[in-house]
User: Fold Dihydroorotate dehydrogenase (Fumarate) from Coprobacter fastidiosus NSB1 = JCM 33896.
Amino acid sequence: METLQTAYAGLTLRNPLIVASSGLTNNIDKIKDLEKAGAGAVVLKSLFEEQILDQADHVLYHSADYPEAYDYVQNYVRSHRIEEYLTLIREAKASCSIPIIASINCYDNGSWVSFARDMEAAGADAIEINILKIATVLDEKPGEYEKLHTDILKAIKNAVKIPVTVKMGQRFSNIVAVVNQLKANNADGVVLFNRFYQPDIDIHKMQFTSGTVFSSSSDFSNTMRWIGIVSGQIPNLSLAASTGVHEPEAVIKALLAGASAVELCSVLYQHGNGIIMQMLTILEEWMQSQGFKTIGEFKGLLNFKNVPDQSYYERVQFMKYFSNRD
Assistant:
């Protein structure tokens, strides 16, 4: 009898499918539906640090012209939004048996330590840190962006006892080195990768607009590459694959590359919760056909360390494969 149970970041999941932080996980009814659909865990929709500040500015702009009121309004808005979030954690823990992972979405190392403690007290099983920032400042020193990740991680790890994971982007000169630093600073897991807002330009209206919202299956190859490279060089660290997981086969490939779990988002928006059971069924059938009883038997079997030719992961040149084509 095959079991789909997996260990991820100190948590035991009934299966490796985690619903990523998004509008899919922003209320209790949606979360209960995801559990019924078969999800192994959910990451709650995070509260953006910049949203709190923007909302405070909006309230002040529309209600009063008293600069001294800013701190009061900002603190009120922050407290109100955080209490709403903590209520969602409590409701989810009371109603669901799967792990509930809270999410902190921030861009500095300021006000989130007390928030993390409140999340833990509300019953969150783990915290996922999603750092939404790109390096755009001309005089910013090399390494400051990477240091921000470890600084935030250390501050939150020192504040809570529950597992803390980091969902990181791809904009690093050395992804493996960054993940290794996160592990050295006691990250319980790393998610590769987060997906930033995609900008576009409307050439007719001559203005910026939103680009493609959803990921696509073509994004998965890069996710799989780095899961395989990182898991092969940094053992004993839980990894979750995110961005581009759209087909059941991608789940299997991510596990073979070394992931302990995958995070689903775009595919659920596009195809509904039913895709979760489809993915689990195909994963179970594949395991049966290959003679695997547990995920641990094949996790990482084809990562960077275990493949006979590591150039499959390292290769960046592709033109020779098309040299004979007109």
